[in-house]
Amino acid sequence: GMRMQPADAGRLVLASEQHSLRIDGQPLPVLRTRTPVVVAAHKPRGMAVVLSAGERDSRFREWLVAISAALSEGGIGRELSPVGRLDKATTGLLLLTDDGDLDLALRDSSTLLKAYVAVVGADAATAHAASTRLLAGVPLPDGEARAMDVLVMGSSEELEAAAQQPGLAGLAAISLPGAPAAAAPAGGGARAAVLLRLSDGRNRVVRRMLAAAGLPCLFLHRLAYGPLDLAALDLAAPG
Q1: Which pTM does this prediction carry?
Q2: 138 secondary structure, DSSP code
Q3: What is the number of alpha carbons within 13 Å of residue 48 lying toward its C-beta?
Q4: What are phi and psi of 90, to 5 degrees?
Q5: Which domains does the chain have, with CATH numbers?
């Protein structure tokens, strides 16, 4: 038979498979914790990541549905949402999760650094001079933005050398004039590649801080999110 035991006000009562909670004889549903799902994906160029149903980008929605369908085939049926956003022209690592608390913790973290590489419309000397401002902090309308680390590369050889460093293998896909690669930006003129690491996750903050430092951003790619490295995860750009 069932043994009923009343609970005093303020007493912590845990429900399990062997026990149930009842109010006026009616069972309460048991809340079970589950492991959050986190998916690392390679966002292509040409679709904007959206955060709410009111913001529509049909290509992104279709991409998200395809990822969710692949998870369902593997026995993981979860509704995923993007952690933060990447604008339409930005490519690279995007995290998706089904856990709202984890999403908020990742986006609000002041210690979890995101790594980006930008190709800017300036020569290496100009980019080196601007890097001091990026490290010191540049004023933006919604508050100062500061990079924790900046590396300027003015040639394909410097890009190749930097790509040998831990976590920077993705730099091998970036091109400056004279070296063909998949991520070559359009147009001519002076070019330099700028690697930035920062915790700031505000909308278009990397493009805006580069512009404020006098470096027009021609191409932007996210290499890593905290310890997750796009190249190490072997996530090729979608076709």
Answers
A1: 0.79
A2: B
A3: 10
A4: -85, 140
A5: 38-107 (3.30.70.580), 110-175+187-233 (3.30.2350.10)
